[in-house]
Batch of 3 targets.
Target 1
Amino acid sequence: MPAEPTPPHNGRPAATPAQALAAMDDLIAASMVGQQETAQRLGLNVTDLTCFAYVIQAGENLLTAGDLATRVHVTTGAVTGILNRLERAGYVTRRPDPEDRRRVRVAAIPSAVARVHALYEPYYARLGALFADYSPQETAVLTDWFTRATTLANAYREELRLHDS
C-alpha cells in the first residue's frame, strides 16, 4: 500500500516520493532540452558547452585537459577534440602549465563568458526568485538534496561504467 503524503508544510501541497521523482524527471528532461537548445544558440554541442561550463566554474584555478576529461568522463583524446573546437569557436585559450610544461591549462575567453552569461543570467535570476520563495531552512534542505543526489548519480554512473568494462 502506498504511503500517505504528509500534511502540507508552509502552504505547499503534500507530495509522495513517487510524485517527487516524477517532478525531478520532468526537470531533468526540460534541462536536457534546454541545454541542447542553448548549445545550439552558442554554436556548440552539449558536451562542448558542458566543458566550457567547467572552465568558467574553475575561474582562476585553470583546469588541465585531464581535469576536463575526468569531469565529463571522456578520454584525454576526446578532450583534445573538444578543446580544439572550443578554441576555434573563440571560447577558450590554452596556456602552458607553469609547473609542468608538458601540460596545458584551459582559460575561458572573457567575451565568450559574457555570451554564455547573457543566455543564462535571465534564467538564473528566475531561479533565484524561485529560491526566494523558500525559507533558509527549506533552501538548506534543497541544497542538501541536490548535493546528495548529484553524488548518488555520479556513483551510479561509475557503477554502470565498471559493470560495462
Target 2
Amino acid sequence: MTTVESGRRERKKAATRQKIADTALRLFLERGYDAVGIRDVAAEADVAVTTLFSHFASKEALVFEQDADFEQRLTQAVTGRAPHEPLLPPLRREIHALVRHCTADGNAPVWHMVVGSPALREYEESMRLRHAETLATAIAADPDLARTATACRTIARFVIDAYALAREAPDPQAAVDEVFEMIEAAWRVTSP
C-alpha cells in the first residue's frame, strides 16, 4: 500500500469520526442527551452502528470526543519539555488552553448538558481519573523530576482537577492561576 492510500484512509477515518461526533452533539443538544440513542446518531450520521462503535466506545464518549487529544497534550507537556525545564509551566499552559476551549461561549450548552446528566458526570469523572494516572506515569518516568509515586499521582490529580474547578469559577483563567499557585507550592514541598 502506498503512503498516499494510507494517508487518504486516515483522513477518511478522521472525517467519519468527526462527522459522527458533530452529529451526536447536535442531536444531544436539540433533543436532550437521554432522548437520543446510539442508533439515532448512526442513522443521522449515515453510518452503521458498528462504524460508530469502531470510533467511540460508548454514547458518553461521543460528548467527550477530544478526550484522547487532551490526554496526549498533557503527556506531551511533560515529555516535550527541554532538559531541566520546570514541570508546571507547560502544564499550566495546557490547562489554560483547555479551560479557554471549555468556557468559550459556544461550549456553554455542552457543559450544561454534562452537568445535567448523571451518566455524563460519571463518565467525565472516570475520564479525569484516567488522565491523572496517565499524567502521573509521565511525571514519574522523568528522571529530572525525581519524586515519589505518591507525589506524582497527587500533583497529577491536582492538575487535572484544576480544569474542572476553573471551568466552574466566575473568572476561569484567574482560577487556573490561583489553583496552580497551590500546585506549585505542593510541588516544592515534595522536592527531594
Target 3
Amino acid sequence: MRELTPKPLTAEAFAPFGDVVDIESASKTFSMNYDMATRYYDLADVDVNDNGGKTCISLVKSKAVKLPFEATMMEYHPFGSQLFHPLGDIPFLILVAPPAEKLDIDKLELFISNGRQGVNYRKGAWHHYLIPLQEDSDFIVVDHIADDNNCVETELDTKVILKL
C-alpha cells in the first residue's frame, strides 16, 4: 500500500508531467483592450495534432471526493496533451506519474492546486481523473480530438491512498 500526501503545485515541481496554468507561471504579459485587461500569454504547450487531431475545448463537471480517497486507476493520452483549468476557486488534487508505456507505481506524485491553478498534462503523462476537494467543481478542458483511441487506462494493483 502507498499513502500519498500532496505537495504544493509549482511550475518547477510539475515540469516532468506538464505545465501549471496560472497567472504566476506566465512568462509574458501585455495590456490589451485599452488597458482594461491584461493578457497572460502562452501558459501551456498544447500538443494535440497527432493522428490528424485537432483542438477540442470542453467543459467538465466533476464530483468532489472525500479524503482519504483510494485511487484505483490511472490513464494517459498517447496522441495529445490534456489541459484542465478550474472555473471556480475549489482546490483539487493531481495524481501523476512520468510518461512511460507502463505505469511505474513507485513514481506516483501527488500535488494540490490552490483552486486557481490548472494543469496541462504532457502527451503520455500518467494521471488520475479530476479529484476536486470540498465541493463539486467545473473545469474547462483543452485536448486532442480525432478518430482514434487517445485514452489508455490501467487499474492499480497496489492500494494508493490520498490524504492531506
